[in-house]
Structure formats: C-alpha cells, structure tokens
Amino acid sequence: MSSRHDHFPRANVARRLAMRRAVSDLDAAWRAADAAPDGLVTAIAALADASADVAIARLLPWLADTDWLRGRLDAALALLAADPFARPPMRMVGGSDGGAGGLVLADSGAIRLTLQLRPYTANSAAPGTAVFVPGRAAIHVLDCGGAELRAYAVAVSAAEEAGGFTASNAAPCLTQPPRPLRTGETLILDTARQSFTLQGTGHDVLLLELTVQPPSRLPIRAYDIASGRLTHISASRRDSSFRQMALALLRQLGRTDAAPLFIAETASEDFAARWNAMRELVALDPAAALPHLAAMAARDPHPEVRRAAAATHALFSLPSGETGRERGGGPGPCTSPAPSTPKPAPHTLDRASCRA
C-alpha cells in the first residue's frame, strides 16, 4: 500500500525550498521568543543553580497560563496546513509506557518541559509498575480524559539519598485509593518518593509536565504495585543512562575491542551504573571481565555490588556444564541483556524483600 511518503515532492525543488524556509522562519521566531528577557529559555537559564523546589516554584506560571503554548501549536498547525510535508520545529519524545508520547517544549540542564499525551486504549490492563525518579515535577492537567489517578508513595531516607541506598533495605511502595483526575489541576511531586498511574480513561489525557532532575546518587526504582516490592533499580543520572545504552549496543554487536569502555564505566560514581557495566562486560567477554570482577567483589564501596560480583565470580570456578553454558566458565545470570534505559526490568542487584 502506498503511504504519504510516496507523494513527497522530491522533484519539486521550489516547493521543498519554500517548505524549509517556512520551517526555518518559524524556528527562528520561537528561538527569539524563548531568548527574550521574558522568554521560557531565559527563565530556565536563570534557574540553572537553583534547587529543584525553587525551580518548580519559579516556573509554575508557564504551566498556569498556556496562551504561549496555544500560540505555538496554532503556528505548527498552520505550517502543516500550508504544506502537509513540512515538519514543525518541535522535538518529539516517546511515551515511557509505549504510548504516543509528546513534544519537548524546553530542555536545559536538569529542567525539561514537555507536552505529554496519554492515549486512551479500550480494555487496557491496569498498570503493574510504579517508578520513582529522583527530582521534582509539576504536572498541569490540560485534559483529564475521564481518568482516575492512583498515587504511590515510598519512604527514602537522607542516607539513601546520599548514596547509601540498598535494595535489601528499601522501603515498600504504598498504594493510595484512586481518585478522579481533574482538568485544570496541577500536581506537585517529589518524584523520588511519589509516583502515580492513570487508569479508566474515557479518552486521551493531555498533560503539561515540568520536571527537574538534577544528578542524584539515589537510583531510579521500580516497584510491583500489587505487592509493593522493589523489582528493579537503575542509574538515575542521564549521562549514565546514555552510556548504559551504548554499552548494551556494543555488547549486542560483540565488540570485544571496546572492553576498555566497559571497564571505565565500572568505576562510575553510580553503583547501579557500575554493576550494569560489569554485567555487560561479563556477557561480552568473560575472560576480560574476570580480574575486574574479582576486584569489584573485593573493593566496591557498595555492599550489594560486592555481593553480586562475588556471586558472579564464583560461577567461573564451577566445573564445566554447571553454568548453563556449553563449556562452562561463564556466568549464566549475566547473559541476559541489561536494561538499556531506566525502565523496569525483572532483575536487580539484590531483590528486596519488600511487602505491601
């Protein structure tokens, strides 16, 4: 079947130039507005060194008065009306749960403002996981879609925030009764301790979401909603997440020549990133990983990383055939892919004994 791309005006040079000019002009106009003294990017840049709470409070007016957003969406629609093959200068972002996602309206340092669409899906299953990301968020509901909000809470101590988090001592996730989501309300969240899911929507939900996620030694944590148990942890720093994705790709490609990159990441400040890099290296090249795995088992500052490394290292000394591999010598549990993004996965350093 033909698609709209089959009709792209490849041979119509004048039309393509006009389309590019229109997009460039609109992008320049938006950039100028953002950089003005009262512009969005200017407001965000002024908060580069502010705390997450202060940044949220100062930027709330951009969520409360959305005339600027309506103007941008109208301009983008006008561009498409003039030529359906034009691409408005807006950056798309995928939905965390595989949904439609949305648009990045501003992104600078730890601060991001996005327009999020949660599409209605008939007979969709209730969410099974609650995710907690270190930082703060303000979420303005543009259209509630008839949804119910179910909130979740988890306790986090100051010591855990400072780098002392362990899966075995993690507090359980507590679920609150559902309530109707209301168009026009604004949710203010400490996202390290508060999360929510939406259910029972009658149509699409539209949210204007402001997040402030400065670097944190506290990992991203995913909990099973039904039991309240911790199911997964991953590095919360954005740069660590990017490196995790890169290492996962290199491991999938069998790039044993890239082993030094894996080894370097095992010295990361983030304990989840260190263990992820080691798991990937063991799966890529067990022989190269062995001495570094032994060092991690002996000297890593995090107790659960030491314990996981020691248990994995012990598998190397098992007789042939006892590891689940054809010739033995390699740790079976580390052959499954590590999470490439900070999303829930069915394994942790040390599965927590959390309960509802």
SSE arrangement:
Blueprint: H1 13-35, H2 40-45, H3 52-64, H4 67-82, E1 91-93, E2 101-108, E3 111-118, E4 129-132, E5 136-143, E6 148-153, H5 158-164, E7 174-175, E8 179-180, E9 186-190, E10 194-199, E11 205-212, E12 220-224, E13 230-234, H6 238-252, H7 259-265, H8 271-284, H9 286-299, H10 303-316
Antiparallel strand pairs: 1-2, 2-3, 3-11, 4-12, 5-9, 5-11, 6-7, 6-8, 6-10, 12-13
Integer tally of domains = 2
CATH topology of the largest domain: Jelly Rolls
CATH superfamily of the largest domain: Jelly Rolls
Helicity range: 25-40%
Question: Alpha-carbon distance between the termini?
Answer: 51 Å
Low-confidence stretches: 321-356
Q: Report strand order across the widest sheet.
A: 1-2-3-11-5-9
**Bulk shape:** globular
**Corresponding CATH architecture of the largest domain:** Sandwich
Alpha carbon gyration radius: 24 Å
Count of helix runs: 10
Summarize the biggest pleated sheet: 6 strands, antiparallel
What is the average of the pLDDT values? 85
Structural description of this entry:
This protein has 356 residues and is α+β, with helices and mostly antiparallel strands. The chain folds into two domains: 215 residues, Jelly Rolls, CATH 2.60.120; 97 residues, no CATH class. The protein is built from ten helices and 13 strands. It has a six-stranded antiparallel β-sheet with strand order 1-2-3-11-5-9. Strands 6, 7, 8 and 10 form a four-stranded antiparallel β-sheet that branches. A hairpin with a 2-residue loop joins strand 2 and strand 3. Helix 1 packs antiparallel against helix 4, helix 6 packs parallel to helix 8 and helix 8 runs antiparallel to helix 9. The termini are far apart.
